[in-house]
Design goal:
2 helices, elongated, 75% helix, 76 residues, membrane, mainly alpha
Amino acid sequence: MQQEKTVSKLRRPFVIGGAAIGVILCGWYLFNNFGRVTTVPDPIWTRFVNLAVIMFLCIYLANLLRVAVELFLRRR
């Protein structure tokens, strides 16, 4: 028999917070990328990849922070 997985109550707020921080960082990246005057601008595919990496890392790090907070609260 499979056991039911329990979903943490902190999961959603941390993911939403990570996504919000990711959106802010993506906006900052795009603002700086379009605002800079360079001799050779970044290709468009590089911008898409960088935005995807920024979003992934923000949500991933928020999830790691959630796990650390849950461990801290559990030991307390």
